Hints:
- By secondary structure, this protein is an alpha+beta fold.
- It folds into 2 domains: 3-133 and 292-298, Diaminopimelate Epimerase, Chain A, domain 1; 137-280, Diaminopimelate Epimerase, Chain A, domain 1 (Roll).
- The protein is globular and about 55 Å long.
- The protein has helices at 35-45, 80-94, 143-153, 182-187, 192-202, 237-251; strands at residues 10-14, 23-29, 50-57, 63-71, 74-76, 98-105, 108-120, 123-131, 137-139, 166-169, 173-179, 207-211, 218-225, 230-233, 255-260, 268-274, 287-298.
- A hairpin with a 5-residue loop joins strand 3 (50-57) and strand 4.
Amino acid sequence: MDRDHLPPVNVVNACLRDGRGGSPTAVLDDAPLSEEQRRRVPVTLGTSHAVFVTTGEDGRGRPTASLRFFTAEGELPACGHGTVAALALLAERSGAEEYRVSLSASGRAFDGRAVREGGDREGGARYRADFDPGPVQLRRPAAEETAPVLDALGVTPDLLGDGACTIASVGRPRLLVPLRTRSALAALAPDTDRLRAACDRLGLLGCYVHSVPTAEGRAAARMFAPSIGVPEDIANANSTACLMAHLATGQGADSVTVDMGDTLGAPATITASITAGAEPGPSGPLVRVGGTAVLTHVR
Length: 299
């Protein structure tokens, strides 16, 4: 599918930092397209992901939206920054200053919200969006599981933070890898082919490598996901939700702010917090995750 045959596509920069950067994400109304055509959308537009949206209403007239997420490699059960991007577009279309919607993806229903923060109503509107990513499942991997992944990442024992690596899942598992410093994180140069092979063997979406959060709850992260056709993601909200659940379980933290995208020249920031006043679910604490998004243009 070339640009001339694309249906109308909104490009939304999701998870901005201080009003700039973010992850360009294709968002479009769903249409009768083949899987191959859906996979071609992000390739054609040069985005990592594409989100296909079907809107409706529930029995009480409240808005609903079904989301499907694709990369060049195929469909994903969830995409955090894609959800942020879709929420921003839906909020803009609604005209509301605060927009709430019942979302569904891969058979799971969850709620989303977007609040207008500024921008020109004729274009470039900016929204703060957040959503419930679902229960986060955590487990401690065996050393033989992490060794080939860490080797492909180029992470040696002296670089690891005090916390152990963790496999976390919101739909698909990924490995959380803590590093002592931001400088060690920035210097990583993974062997992409070996990393993909290691992740494929373990059934991992990829690796979310992060610095140890400061006392104020600020960290940096890089998400390597060659198994889904994304060598490095500018922003990854679902993995940040996984980190939040891990920090809450192990350290009692209630919020985290994560900077991403700097090595790619696209600064991005994601925030996650424990849902205030909510009792932990069967899988652990309930998390809310989100970021700021701006609508850039329509192709």
